[in-house]
Design a protein that fits this description.
Layout lengths: L1 H7 L7 H13 L16 H19 L3 H14 L3 H13 L3 H14 L6 H17 L3 E8 L4 E4 L2 E5 L2 E5 L2 E8 L6 E7 L5 E6 L34 H35 L3 H42 L14 E7 L2 E7 L2
Parallel strand pairs: 1-7
Antiparallel strand pairs: 1-4, 2-3, 2-5, 5-6, 8-9
Helix pairs in contact: 2-5, 3-4, 4-5, 5-6, 6-7, 8-9
């Protein structure tokens, strides 16, 4: 950790106070060689090593005042690990390039990633300085996010890209349009002040209806009735049909479980994605898996209920003497399936 502090201090005497605090965040986040690797779903040790090299090369480029090269190297490292230190270095480098919009964006990102950073007051002062620079240009910065992410954003009828999106607009009232497949479209006004940057978070309402609970048919009690004086009628094979129907229902439930697992993975991929197109693709996959899981769940519950009823009726109506004696009580019935599930109707004498 002490080595990292020394290395980071090379970015300049003006930033040393900030850099000491940010270097502590860097070490704790797992980039320092002495810190153990993160959880299995995080970057691999090889990826961490690449990020460390990019980071070190970026510092050298900054020392040599090759600020454009430093920006590219810090961005490459940040794509591997979204570490607060990278956000800090990017803000500092863009400030050296007199790029107020990007310097402000990464300063705000640093505060979001490290809310308890010991240099927070200094970075908030940097944010205020960049905000005033944008105000003099007649614009102010806004960050628009959606839940879930990946929604297509338009402001005042002009497309801005997928959420989250950060950009500069003129102060005043604007109209936000937001669209995401499987969710209700959003159209709402918002006011952007001239003095400070703004964060606008928009929750999205899903269009997928909740599954309608399937009510299992109530078994009809079998009342013994004297058989009419007619030729014995062979009983319908309800037991095999019931077993087959129950098996189909069980298979549908297994499929529903598999689709739900796939949905959860797609949701996690969308949350972890650092590229907006990847986040949008993962969100679309999540919606498809969610709809399929709900349909399979409803179908599985209905089929299991029907299959269990058929087996129960078969056992209740079986002749005491065995299958060879025949069944003089004919049973009729029908099975129908719809969007809400499946329903069976049996008619017993």
């Amino acid at each position: 950790m002490s080595d990292r502090v020394v290395v980071r201090s090379r970015l300049g005497a003006r930033a040393r106070g900030w850099l000491r605090a940010a270097s502590v965040v860097l070490a704790l986040s797992g980039l320092a060689p002495s810190v153990a690797a993160g959880p299995p779903e995080g970057p691999t040790e090889a990826e961490r090593e690449v990020a460390r090299r990019k980071y070190a090369d970026g510092e050298k480029a900054f020392d040599q005042k090759r600020y454009r090269d430093a920006v590219e190297l810090f961005l490459d490292a940040d794509r591997i690990i979204a570490d607060p230190a990278f956000a800090f270095n990017l803000s500092e480098t863009y400030h050296a390039l007199n790029d107020s919009p990007r310097a402000l964006r990464w300063a705000r990102e640093y505060l979001k990633r490290a809310p308890d950073a010991p240099d927070r007051a200094d970075m908030e002062a940097r944010v205020a300085t960049e905000e005033q620079a944008l105000k003099k240009q007649g614009v102010q910065q806004i960050t628009i996010t959606s839940s879930p992410p990946g929604a297509v954003i338009a402001v005042d009828g002009r497309g801005r890209g997928p959420s989250p999106w950060t950009g500069e607009l003129s102060p005043g009232t604007h109209i936000l349009d937001m669209k995401l497949q499987g969710y209700r479209d959003v159209r709402r006004p918002f006011d952007l002040g001239a003095d400070h940057a703004m964060d606008l978070a928009v929750p999205l309402e899903s269009l997928v209806a909740e599954p309608v609970p399937t009510v299992a048919p109530v078994p009809v009690p079998v009342v013994p009735v004297p058989a009419p004086a007619v030729e014995p009628v062979e009983r319908p094979p309800l037991l095999p049909i019931g077993i087959a129907t129950f098996g189909a229902g069980a298979a549908s439930l297994v499929a529903a479980l598999g689709l739900e697992i796939a949905r959860a993975r797609a949701e996690q991929d969308a949350r972890d994605a650092t590229i907006q197109l990847d986040a949008l693709s993962a969100a679309d996959s999540m919606d498809s898996f969610q709809l399929g899981a709900r349909v399979a769940l409803g179908l599985g519950v209905g089929l299991c209920a029907v299959g269990g009823t058929l087996v129960a009726v078969d056992l209740a109506t079986a002749p005491e003497g065995g299958a060879d004696e025949g069944d003089s009580s004919p049973v009729t019935g029908w099975l129908g399936c719809g969007p809400a599930g499946c329903v069976a109707r049996l008619s017993l004498p």
